[in-house]
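Class, look over these structure tokens:
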Amino acid sequence: MKINKKTYLIAGLIVAALAIGIYSMFHGSEKPKLKLDTAKIAKGNISTAITATGTVEPIKSVEVGTQVSGVISKIYVDYNSMVKKGQILAELDKKLLQSELEAAQATWQTKKVAYENQLLTYNRQKELWNKQAISKADWETAQADFQTARLAVMASKASVVKAETNLGYATIYSTIDGVVISKAVEEGQTVAASFSTPTLFTIANDLTKMRVIANVDEADIGGVKDGQRVTFTVDAYPDDIFDGKVVQVRLEATTTSNVVTYEVAIEAPNTSLKLKPGMTASASIYTMEESNVILVPTKAFRFSPDASQVKSMKDFTFDKAIQADSKNTKQKVVWVRSHSNKVSPKIITIGLTDGINASVVNGLAVGEEVATSVSEVTVADSQAAAGTETSPFMPKPPGGNSKK
């Protein structure tokens, strides 16, 4: 009987199907082995922080301007110049202001002469009035002319004081000790102070102490308080971390595109002078910090073994589950593994948490192990338990498969 190739192919497929079925019958129903994942309790630091961006600026800066108009005739400082309080920064052309002062002084002298002449007339008219030698109308006219002359002298004197003051304003002085960080004018430039005081220079008091005005979202501002620690970076020095602290939480809100933010002032030392006014800072404000406390992973609170898991892990003995007080959010249940592989539930009290770890107030000690999850045993786990480790990609030693 002649058998063709098609018959061999069909027979081979049937044999393969039977082999797969037999393998599935004996091995397919095997459940994966499970292991208990644990974490050892230890001490550490815990913190939570909110992020914000802001601008670096001097703690104290003063804008120096002029109250009179004129042409800048001389400038004595430049950018980054160190200045002292009372030091001359610039001068305006004083010719026009000097002439105004001289005109005011001349008018004042003229009014004084008129006043003295009117005083003599007043005294003569008074004597005649006392003798009833003049009419009442003439006496009243003499009184009015005398008062007018006296007031004219006072007005002229005030004009002289004003002209002297304006002449003094032509010399621009520094009002504080510091460094010039902005210069808005050049020699020969005309400044007009008719409606507002133009800013000529901006002087920062002390650049070794800076501050960051950070914009904090309204959802985070409730946790920000004075004295909290802050770290921040600037683009100019991405590898440097600068330290600071919150010194003021401002109450005024700013709304931009329906987003409400509040300004938080952060003081930071700048002894290296790396921080410069106007830099953008990315800040982390630590709203909660605890150091050297007992920590437990928060995922241990979510662990609770079910019946199928307990049966699969025959190396462990599990006690009966217990419940914490549902009204007390600080009470949590964790499963503690003993040296004899006994896993028992325990109620603990926690403090602050950052979402990953929580501080333990009482209930756990350093060195104890708490269960965090149950996972399947992998090939690597089996090899580690057996004390061996192999890789299919590693070459076999010569003669490794030979029999002696």
